[in-house]
Structures are given as structure tokens and as C-alpha cells.
Amino acid sequence: MERGVLIRKEEDILEKLYTSPEDTCSTLTDTVQITHAQYPILQAVSNLYLNQKILFQKI
Description:
59 residues, mainly alpha, 3 helices, 0% strand
């Protein structure tokens, strides 16, 4: 999560994540490092997944 990045709708998330044509879900995981500030977000998403509130699909 970057400071100063405002997400107004779902489509904005993809634009912020995939900033170049070479970016894929695999390259994003290689470049992202988890910091202490991201733990609450990771925990919230994990809980949503484990409680079957969200579903991840490979396209």
C-alpha cells in the first residue's frame, strides 16, 4: 500500500498494481516485500478468504 494513492473504484486497483505491460501476478509477488504496516491488511484478506467471503481465481 502506498501513501497518497487514492482508490475510488475497483478498476483503479488494477491500474495501480499493474503499472507496466511486463507486470504479471508472478512478477508482483517477486517484487513485493511484506512490512509490518502490511500485516493487518494481510490478516484481513486472509480472514476473508478463510471465511469464504472472497475467492481468488487464476485467469
